[in-house]
Design brief:
Length: 336
């Protein structure tokens, strides 16, 4: 519950659930059973797009996200939204903004008569090779993702990471081996391809990466890569001198490869890696909170960092903050 207003409820219920009178909106549901609500999906990563499994429910996302998930789900009863396009549900309005995370990723502004709520989904405030920065929105309640919500997460500049990757790949190629970048097929994979397109090193893309590349290309991105399943790939593989981009968990037994993880988690990994991330790091999250200037912050998607981030915001920024799944029930009485 929030702000002593009986009609407006915000809770964590397998996703972010916002209720105002008869309007029930669920953002990034992880469940597939709540059928009395309207679902909004922030982006195509699997941990955010489970609502597409609910066949009969009404679902909204960007056009790009719909195209991405149509590779995996039926998109019956799904509707696409453009940036800033308003959807009205009862007395509530939902408005998407760019979240800067991956192709088609949205934040959602939810406007109820008692105030404005902003849900970030996954977000990134840095300009990258494929994305514009997330847009801050002035709000009363900010529901912010806390994936990297601990002060120990500080990412270097995107360009510096790109230079490091290119340098490492150059050294591996000189040794006559193949640099293998393991990354999320949606988001980081396309960033890697852009980095190596700039230094003119051929890229072979795993089929799961190529599948996502095609959606980017349909939306105007120029990516130069060779689909691993093509005959051209066979030819290039015989000669070497390329990099390979593949999903993180794929098993590769070929001894000719040298592996590197591309993810914000590379900061904490003992494996070789590069902390190129499509999420905001700690300081960028804090700056975003300042820019949105909320009265209350609710943290989500961060596991134990939900608590770390909420405590920091409360102690250092003097804004009321809670992990969204731990909103206290006596919250209403605390209102001045
Ligand atoms: Zn994501
Ligand atoms: Zn996520």
């Amino acid at each position: 519950m929030w702000m002593g207003v009986d009609d407006l409820r915000i809770e964590w219920n397998g996703g972010v659930r916002i209720e105002y009178k008869d309007a029930k909106v669920v953002l990034d549901s992880k469940r597939s059973s709540i059928e009395d609500s309207v679902f909004f999906v922030s982006h195509g990563h699997f941990d955010h797009s489970a609502a597409f499994r609910i066949k009969n429910a009404k679902k909204y996302s960007s056009k790009e996200t719909l195209e991405i998930v149509s590779n995996f789900f039926s998109i019956k009863n799904s509707f696409s939204l453009s940036l800033k396009e308003k959807t009205t549900i009862g007395e509530v309005e939902v408005i998407p903004h760019n979240s800067g995370h991956v192709l088609g990723s949205f934040e959602y502004e939810v406007r109820a008569p008692e105030g404005i709520i902003l849900y970030t989904g996954d977000f990134n405030t840095e300009k990258t090779k494929t994305m514009k920065p997330a847009e801050p929105v002035q709000c009363d309640v900010l529901i912010v993702e806390a994936t990297f919500g601990s002060p120990s997460f500080v990412f270097p500049k995107v360009d510096e990471i790109g230079e490091d990757m290119a340098e490492w790949a150059g050294r591996v190629l000189k040794r006559g081996r193949i640099p293998l970048f393991r990354a999320d097929p949606l988001g980081n994979a396309q960033e890697i391809i852009c980095i190596f397109n700039e230094c003119d090193i051929p890229v072979i893309a795993h089929p799961r990466v190529a599948l996502m590349n095609m959606v980017y290309e349909r939306h105007g991105f120029r990516l130069r890569y060779i689909d691993e399943q093509s005959s051209e790939a066979e030819e290039i593989k015989r000669h070497g001198g390329f990099i390979y981009v593949a999903p993180k968990n794929i098993k590769i037994s070929d001894a000719g490869f040298e592996d590197a993880l591309v993810s914000g988690w590379a900061l904490w990994s003992r494996r070789r890696g590069f902390p190129l991330s499509d999420h905001a790091d700690f300081h960028r999250i804090i700056r975003f909170v300042e820019e949105c200037d909320p009265k209350i912050v609710l943290t989500c998607h961060g596991g134990r960092f939900n608590e770390t981030l909420a405590r920091y915001i409360e102690q250092k920024m003097h804004i009321k903050a809670y992990p969204i799944d731990l909103i206290p029930t006596k919250f209403r009485k605390e209102k001045p």
